[in-house]
Amino acid sequence: MAGQTLRDKRSWLGPIAWFVYVPLAAASDWIKGRLQFMDPSTWNTKRMSWLLHIPGPTYVEIKNPSSSAAWYVEKLGLRRLAPSEDADPKTIRMKFSGDTEEMRLGPQDPLSLGATILLYSRRLKRARKVLSERAVDVSPIRVDRQGTNYFEFHDPEGNTIEVCGAKPDS
Questions:
Q1: CA 12 – CA 8 distance, rounded (Å)
Q2: Spatial CB neighbours of 26, under 8 Å, sequence gap ≥ 6
């Protein structure tokens, strides 16, 4: 009889553990995501993450990263990442959200050629309009030799940022 009671209790341990573990795992991911960023998620950051996409890890040369970071937060909707041990303390790391690519603002490199920063948008006209409403001086939408639609603007230090779209908005 005692052996039967023990087996009955063991049969419940699996489902109980599963019902406890799954919510805790989800909460753990949520907490890690919240701790990853210094800036809170706002409607501005969510809206811009729907409009703009960083294609890969991007380095932006900035004379004063801390003062320029505020412009990238306000105008582009990027969020500052919390400092980490493996990151260069002279750079500021930024993302739209936890699952997007990273943009780093850091000191100028004398050997660099100062490349154009690329962003992508599936809704190019809308992205241009939103940036214009945020007092960013954006160029008209143009078409390059490959048939790609794009527009350009500049950050406060004069870096050219190009937003490309695969096809025009309909």
A1: 7
A2: none
Domain count, the chain: 1
pLDDT tens for the chain, 170 residues: list them: 555 554 555 565 566 655 555 555 444 444 444 445 556 566 566 778 889 999 988 889 988 888 889 999 899 989 888 877 666 778 888 888 777 788 889 887 766 666 789 999 999 999 999 999 999 999 999 999 989 999 999 999 899 999 999 644 44
pTM: 0.71
Cβ(134)–Cβ(75) below 8 Å = yes
Domain contains 10: no
Nearest to 105 by CA among 119, 82, 88, 84: 88
Alpha helices in the chain (DSSP H): 2-36, 43-51, 65-76, 124-133
Q: Which two tokens stand for residue 157?
A: 């230090």
Domain at 88, CATH number: 3.10.180.10
